[in-house]
Design goal:
With 1181 residues, the chain is of the alpha+beta class. It has 21 helices and 25 strands. A six-stranded antiparallel beta sheet has the order 2-1-4-5-6-7. A six-stranded mixed beta sheet has the order 8-22-23-3-24-25, covered by helices on one side. It has a five-stranded mixed beta sheet with strand order 13-15-16-17-18, with helices on both faces.
Amino acid sequence: MHLKRLDLFGFKSFAEKSELDFSAGIAAIVGPNGCGKSNIVDAVRWALGEQSIKTLRGTRMEEVIFSGSENRKPLNFAEVSLTFTDVASDLNLDYDEMTVTRRLFRNGDSEYYINKSPCRLKDITELFMDTGVGKDIYSVIGQGRVDEIINSRPEERREIFEEAAGILKYKMRKKEAGRRLEETRENLVRVQDLIFELDTQLEPLREQAEVTRRYRELKKKIETAEKKLRSFDLISSQEQLARVEKQLQSVRDALFSSAARSGLDEKELQERRLKLQEEQAARKQKENKLSLVSRSLEQKENEKILLGEREERYREQIEQNKQRVKQLELLMKELSSQKEKTEEELVIKKEQLNDLEKERHQIEDHLARLEAGTLPGEVERQQEKIYLIGARRQAALSAVDEVKRQLERMHHQKIALQEEESALQKTLADLEESASTLSAKIEEHSKGLSRNEIKENQLSARIEKKEKKLNSLYEEKRSKREELSGIGSRLSLLEEQDAALSGYYRGVKEVMQARSSIPGILGPVAELISVDEDHLQAVEAALGNGMQYLVAETEKSVHKAIHYLKEKKGGWATFLPLDVIHRAADPLDRFPGWQDLAGVVGRASELVKTEALHRPAVDYLLASTLVCCTLEDASKASRFLKQSCRIVTLDGEVISPGGVIRGGSLPRRNTAGMPLGRRKDIESLNNKQLTVNRELSKINSDINTLDHSLSAEKEQFAEIVSQRQEIATKIEDFQKERASLEREQKAVNDRLQVTSKQYGDYDREESELEERLQNLQREICEADKEVKELENALLGTREQYRQYLEQKNTLEQSKTEVLVKLSSCSEQRDMLENKLEEIKINTGKPADEIKEIGLENDKHEEILFRNLSDQKNIETEINNLTEEKAALIEEVEKRNHRLNELEAEIRDLEEERRRSQNRVDRQEKREKHFSVEQTRLQTELNYQEMRFKELFKTLETVPLEDGFNPDEGRQMVESLKEDLEVLGEVNLGAIEELERLEERINFLKEQKEDLQKGEASLKKVLGEIDRRMEHYFQQAFEQVRENLGETFQELFEGGQVILKLTDPDNILESGIDIVAQPPGKKLQNITLLSAGEKVLTAIALVFAILRFKPAPFYLLDEVESTLDDANLSRFTKFLKQSAERAQFVLITHRKRTMEEAGVLYGVTMPEPGVSRLVSLKLEDN
């Protein structure tokens, strides 16, 4: 069987007639959000019998009918049809194609059709039961259904297994058999109560029947007179019964009306309570969402602060780099200025050098002519050495000044590098501190995550334990309620019988009912005494009919009562007037020592408790009666007492004066027919009812306490799971931030290496310059020493060359001046050239450094740009979250207001229901009263008719003459009955009553046997149903567990999953737990898995059931929306394999899923509020 076609008209947004044809394989339904794709899922569910409007994503059933749009009017009905093919074998039908149709009108009327033939919803539900298709089908997974499968309670999760196991029909049969069994048990209890009551009446009636037989001869004498009296009584009873029946019918009509109204009130109350639960769940959902939004808002604000701090650090670094660039630019500007100045000076020095060279050549030519001799040449050579050494010394001095200037510049550059390095070290320390703080936070949150997981596991175990305890308490509560119901039924029966004076003779009843008009009547003996349970049977045997004797204050009161009975024709009664009766001589007083006899309990009168006023009556009846433990003890005591007094045993045997013994096997005593024991049992049942009510109250209190505790722990569990996810998210954010800080640390370290290298270069250059300075200073000292030595050598020849020298000195002085100038100018030129070269070299270094700083600033600017973008995004998210939070707070307040309104409505409805129930209770009591009265009157009438027919062989009453005086007729009968007084009270219909009673008892016993057989048969049926359900469920569970292991590994490409029963000893009620271990993770409950893992696990479960019991089709609504690309690829691969065995219809947004579909249906909304279908067969394209 598979789904062939879906037809929609007027369903939700499908205003026009729409048709979807499905073939084997995969069909995909696609379209933008909000266009009505999920309405197709709702349509399938609705057509298959879904009645929950919440499941259909609405609030009222009428909402499934197209409600109109701007351009279209609302429709009056909605209709969805599903056509299936190959249904003959799966549904056991005579045809292969079947169409199921559901139609809803706006007035609330519904119509259902199978192949266009009208049917009931129940017919459709039963048709698809246990086929995988129905209102609770596991093959339709809508939005949110995955969370329901995964997060539902174990007891709720078993529902899809029951559907797959095919035991739903057995559950329905079990429910029906259980209901019938309960009815059978109730009927059995009622029959047993009737048997007990009639058995109690049987023995006294037998005694009366024996006496009646002795009165047969006297009966013929009073037949004529009594026939008129009985005709009169019969007619009176018929009239009285007619009046009561009329009153009873009136009360029943009123009761029916009140009960109907109470039922309506109860239905409305249940609807309000359901709405209250839905509102509470919605409020809880919004509060949870509000909590998540608040935490997200706090997280985003913290991220904003961190981004601000990061921006501040980078801006400080950029500012420091800019300051450094300014310093370098000033240095470059200064070097450029020095270069220009040096170049100008170099040009001037070269010109001066050329002029000095010319002048030197002129002087040298003149000196050459003058120095023709040897001595002058020698002196000249020595003086030239002096001059050369002086020039060298002067050049060295100039070089010393230049080296000192270079050392000073180098010192300033090193200071700048030290300052930069210090700033970088501070930045690095801040970054390391931030990284360390983040590492500590990561470690702290990781520990918190571990603690959270431990708490989560512990809490999960506690929740499971409490759920088992709660189920146990509910079972105990059910047992106590059943016990309380049984006690209540029994107590109600006893109280009704007590109120109706059941078991009393008619005369006693008549007097007690007229008690208010007959002063001085205290009541029957049975109502005026109390006896311990151990002595009850003995006292009942001792009293016999004496329990029905009426105790009166005076003899006058007795006369009034007897006169009343005569007037009302109310039967006979025996009275004990307290002012007349007296105890006869006690035979026990003649036998001293009787108290010491073995087995003697005491006087019967001493075992009875009563008020002092009533004590004479008790002593009159029981003072001469002795109570013994056993019959043997009683026989011994009777012989000791010479058979002079009555003796009874604790088992109810009686030895009368004279030695007559009565005993044997009696039916089990039934308090319903024994007034004395009945009162004792009423008291006992009241006490037991109070005890059971207290126990039930304690169980309810324990259930409420445990339920609140369980709800709190479930909320705590959800909060812990949320905290764990939040902590994991924080750890991931911290790790990302730490990675960013590590990148910043690397950039700072790289810059530190560059500055360290530059600083090393400056140190080497500084060392070289200091070494050069020392060499120059040594050279100056040596030159000073040589000049001094040469000057000393020239002192001896000074006179010889005075004239010569004067001229020569003049020339040489000029030459020296020229040479000094020339040397100085040449040295200055060389220094300027060196300086110019050095300036060119130094000019390149700041440029390189500026370029490096520029690159570094570009990186920082890029980071700041990204940081600014992140800040804007976070600011946007904060604004959105703030708005969402405010909206959620407002919605929660609205929900609270609505909850308050619903609670007030529920209180009003509960009060109205209480008033209605009170009216029903009052009317039920009246109905019971009139029903009992009707039964009593009917019984009396039946008895009178039976006696009349028995006496006169006909039911025709005799005509009564005008002025018939029943008193005169009664006096005649009384005069005749005086002859019978020697034998005491006689029940003239005892024989017939006995026969009828025995017949009634036999009939009831047959009914009892039939009911017991029926009960046994139903128990056997229930046992067989349980065995079949257990067998089928166990078989399905084992096969699905095996299949789940395979599908899980196929979808996850590894890992394991465990499917287990929460209570293996109670397989029919046990929940089902799922524990999974995806590859690379630990074994844990599925509620702890990630969203994607949960989806895959739920899909694996559905496909595991598919392999065990394939459904006709599978409808998946965006189940893969949360899967990443890897999991999606595995899902589509698995889906494609499964499509070879089953039919799939998917609603999806994922391109990868669409690629696997054979047919694509597009859902569009060309006009607001109206959906339209577009189809495409991919095989043809």
